[in-house]
Automatic annotation (TrEMBL), chain A:
Coiled-coil residue spans: none
Residue span of region Disordered: 1-32
Listed GO CC annotations: plasma membrane
Intracellular or extracellular location(s): Cell membrane
This protein's UniProt keywords: Cell membrane, Membrane, Transmembrane, Transmembrane helix, Transport
Record protein name field: ABC transporter permease
Family of this protein: Belongs to the binding-protein-dependent transport system permease family.
Membrane topology (UniProt): Multi-pass membrane protein
Domain ABC transmembrane type-1: from-to ranges: 134-351
Cited Pfam families: BPD_transp_1, BPD_transp_1_N
Protein's GO biological process: transmembrane transport
Membrane-crossing residue ranges in chain numbering: 39-65, 133-155, 176-198, 218-241, 284-308, 328-354
Organism annotation: Streptomyces brevispora
Automatic annotation (TrEMBL), chain B:
Protein name: ABC transporter substrate-binding protein
Species annotation: Streptomyces brevispora
Alphabetized Gene3D superfamilies for the sequence: Dipeptide-binding Protein, Domain 3 (3.10.105.10), Periplasmic binding protein-like II (3.40.190.10)
Residue ranges crossing the lipid bilayer per the database entry: 595-614
Keyword hit for Lipid metabolism: no
Amino acid sequence: MTADSTPALVRQADADTDGPAPAGPPAGRGPRARNTKAYLKYVAAKIVGAAVSLFAVLVTSFFLFRLIPSDPVKQMTGGRPVSAQQLDSLRHQFGLDQPMWQQFTSYVGDALTGDFGTSFQFHAPVMDKITEALPATLLLTGTAYLLYSALGIWLGTRTAWRNGSMSDRFNTALALTLYSVPSFWLGLLLIIVFSVGIGPIPGMFPTGGLESGTETGFAYVLDVAHHMVLPVITLVAVGYAQTLLVMRSSLLDEMGSDYLTTARAKGLRDDTVRRKHAVPNAMLPAFTLMFVNLGQVVAGQILVETVFSWPGLGGLFYQGLSVPDLPLVQGLFFVFATAVILANTLADVLYPLLDPRVGR
Amino acid sequence: MVERVPPHAAQPRSRLRILLASGAAALGLAAASVVPGVPLGAAAPQQAQAADSGRTTLTVAVAQSVDSLSPFLAQKLLSTSVSRLMYDFLTNYDAKDNHAIPGLATKWEPSADKLTWTYTIRSNSKWSDGQQATAEDAAWTFNKLMTDEGAAQANGNFVTNFKKVTAPSPTKLVIELKEPQATMAALDVPIVPKHVWEKVGDFSKFNNDTKFPIVGNGPFILSDYKVDQYVKLTANKDFWRGSPKFDEVVFKTYKDQDAAVAALRKGEVSFVAGSPALTPAQAASLKGEKNVKVNEGPGRRFFALATNPGAQTKDGKKFGNGNKALLDQKVRQALFLSIDRKTIIDKVFQGHAVEGQGYIPPRFSAYYWQPSGSQSLAYDPAKAAQLLDQAGYRLKGDQRVGKDGKPLDLRILCHATDPNDKAIGKYLKEWWGKLGIGLKVDCLDDVSVPWYAGEYDLAFDGWSVNPDPDFVLGIHTCAALPTKAKASASTDNFICDKTYDDLYKKQLAEYDPAKRADIVKQMQSWMYDSGYMNVIAYPNAVEAYRTDQIKSITTMPEAAGNIYGQDGYWSWWSAVPAGSGGDADSDSGSGSTGVVIGIVVVVVVLAGGGFLVMRRRRTTSDDRE
């Protein structure tokens, strides 16, 4: 998140040393003056709502993946010489021979204690598999998230402020084009151009993976960064457009406001008007979008992780679905949903601090 | 009045901060590509390592993840292939013709009553921790499979007919059977070191992936593993058959096949196989590539059309809704007679397959069977129409109508993920349509549910065949039928026939290889005539490797066979590294470093220059205000 989108952005109207407070919204009282009790009640309601949502996710995840018409045991052993006794034994070990209600109650009971069972195909606790793959996903999508959010806000502000100019038209068209490009296709294209190399362009980046497997120490860090370049570029290229467009449209709405005219009439520099008056108020929709996207950072990007063979959660989820490895997909679904719910709850909790009209 | 703020040159400080931050991030990422020590261009681990230590590494691109490194749990092809490299088996298969040859056992023989097999265990095989591999290790491994349900997950099927396994001496292993079993030289069970594995508590949860190197006695020792990234194996210099020529084999995960092909083109990997084959487009694109050899060998799979012969349980209870018309052998044969297999090979497989006939693919020459001239059901739509007429399905307008007045409409199960199924489905629709048969192609992500429920008429079917055909023959016996309706079972498509079952039992009890092969051929002949399983094609194994990294490699069968997924360790054990200083290095590796550094320097200079100009313009603009 950029410095401009911190809670200080509302307070700064009072603290503005360049001139008197702007006339524009929000017109409510500042956070310090808020009724703390009402705010805490609001926060408590949001937390309770999140807890209810999480429980609903827990229950639905059990039934959702059982709708997939498949026999996990047969899928896993597919093509191998396996006797009928072995199939029965595996089914028994996985608990698939138990009645559905029994499977459900033990699943919910275990899940409430943080135990999502043992993966059918990897013979390891689901939470171990998730914690194993989570750092790779956070590193990739987290880096991309920071970059595309910053780039989107910056370019969105720039294009709106220069609305109608050549650079506005170019940037908006480019963003819309990249936004429409399938990420796996762009990833493959980048591999062909920058990994394999075309014409005078040398192959400078690895075709996939998180590391070469040969480096240690600081060289390892550089090696991982080297492997991150193309997947991050892919994610940023297809991801920044959304923030750009939201920021642009939000700022364009603000740009017609009287308080900006007033600010300009006071003789403030154009940059000050934009940076200290227009952008803070235009940030709210972009802020919401950033929190929505933040929740999705954990889920990773299945297609990009696949194209670049990134060992993250997206790829793990795909492998889980192909069996289906019920404990694994249930656990992953719950973790993904939890991340989104937590990010949304966090946004809900922070929003009244940014926009006093909310939560009153 | 709303007044739009005019576009204006933006202002320095905030943008400067963002610009600097973005620039730093971008440069940081880019810089990583030009830092010494980080390989560029042909950044193959092999070459990187070769430069460091002179070691030779063969890198294989694989699409699968490892499910487990425990040979008691591993199910996937990659994991079982790795087990083959880590642990020796009692026997191996000859690369030339798949016949059983010595492995950990130097010889094996049955008793006169056919119920006891005695194996002589070699005395020159050592575990990588220095201990001797003995018959005791083999006996312990088999006993574990027989007594521990958790340990029997992957290979339990091999011991179901075992009565007792003992090791009277370090070089003698005795296996007593309940019934005679001809597959005793095809026990594909990795033998593990007892002194290491007896410390394992719960076999169903032990994945053998925590302490490296892992003690083994195969041609390679597993030295490192990172989930979903790579499996590293180093050459076992003390391997009794001789040390592998490459110092290291790395199986590197590429989840996307096109990315794997790009990695081969770049030289980042030495070998790429498809899953199960490279697509015709991938193979074609690699064919003209410098330093790349596309290898195409006879595949071990067959692609067939299966008919529903009437789903039933073991005790004869019928279920499912297969079309009754298919219970007539004439109808089944008519369907096969109207399939132009040559067109399917040319158009769908684009030449990367061989026309199907018998049930066992031709690469298994001992068991390969072809129909005689009079028996052959070659493409003949006129004869097909004749057979349908004889079966009572006459043409009424443009439709075949049965005696009950209902048109002959069929359904076929197709795998939605297999483009071949879909393409062939379209051809069948056209060919059978001309005969007056309606066809609905049901493409599903997972066909197993309607299949087990017997709710299909026809299905696209295919199996990978092992050197010993017992398993793929066994899935058509009455014993493989489900005990309950709709429950999954070992059966492939509910075939249950006394003639076939008698032949199956006979071949399993026949210890003379030639006589056994003859019985297996009789079974194929019966299956062909029945029309239950119509083999359309044997798809080829299409794969590619870099000739500047691999000088030579053994295929299986040795004359024009495949490399990946062999029965045995021949390919990776035999691979000879190409001479050092291969073209890949000089082509795009070190040579590109200077180019990249140059590009980065130019970009930095241009960006810096642009930034100064913009800053100057803005300052002027602000001053004007």
